[in-house]
Amino acid sequence: EVQLVESGGGAVQIGGSLKLSCEVSEYAYEQYCMGWLRHPPGKAREILATIHSDGKTTDVESVKGRFTISEDNANHRVYLELNSLKPEDTAMYYCAQGYTDWGGICRFRVWGQGTQVTVSS
To answer: How far apart are CA 50 and CA 35, in angstroms?
Structure first.
C-alpha cells in the first residue's frame, strides 16, 4: 500500500518561501506520476504541479514561475518549492501519486494527509 507523508508547511509572511516535502513509500505504477494539489478554504481542490516518471513536469498558470516541483528518486521524495507567497496561497497542500495515461495525463489514485500553508501580512 502506497503511503505519502507531507511536511514543510507552516505560517509565512507575504513574499516568503517554503519548501514542501513528500515522502513516498513506494511507486505503484511503472508509468507513475507524482503531483501537488491544494485545497483552499471554501474553494475547489486545485492541481498545482505534476512530475512524470520520464521527468516531464507540468504546472498550472496561476503558480507558474512561483512554484516548482522536483523529485529525488534515490530518496523517494517529491518536493514543491513555493516562492513569492500570497495570502491566496493559504491552503492545505497535498501530495498525490497516480499513473500517466495514454494521453499523458496524470490520473491520481493515492493522496497524503496534507500539510497546511498559511500566508499572512
So the answer is: 4
* CA angle at 107 for the pair 105 and 112, rounded to the nearest 5°: 130
Tell me, what's the pLDDT at 93?
98
Torsion, Cα 104 110 115 121, to 10 degrees, reads 30
Task: Say what the pLDDT of residue 61 is.
Answer: 81
pLDDT (0 to 100) of residue 62: 83
The amino acid occupying position 54 is D
Per-residue DSSP letters for 73-88?
Answer: GGGTEEEEEE-S--GG
The CA distances from residue 58 to 33, 47, 88, 109, in Å, are 11, 10, 21, 18
Q: Residue 8 — φ and ψ, nearest 5°?
A: 105, -5
Bridge partners (DSSP) listed for residue 99: 32, 107
* Average pLDDT value for residue range 45-58: 93
